[in-house]
C-alpha cells in the first residue's frame, strides 16, 4: 500500500513540475489527506475496527508524504 502511495506522490511531483514549468509564478496549493474514520467511535458496520485503523494509518502516511513533497517544492511555489 505504501509503495502505491509513494508512486502516486512521485506522479504528483511530475505534474507539479509541469505546472511550474508552464506558469512559474503561480502558487499551487495541495489539500491534506484527512483520516477517514473516527479513532474513538465505531462509525461504520461495514468496516471493522482493525480495518479503520489501517485505513487511517494509510491516510496519515499519504498526508505526510504530500506535506514532504510540498516542503521540498516550496521554491517552486508549492504549498
From TrEMBL:
The protein's name is Uncharacterized protein
SUPFAM superfamilies registered for this protein in UniProt = SGNH hydrolase
Which InterPro entries does the protein's record reference?
SGNH_hydro_sf
Name the species this protein comes from. Streptomyces variabilis
Q: What superkingdom heads the lineage?
A: Bacteria
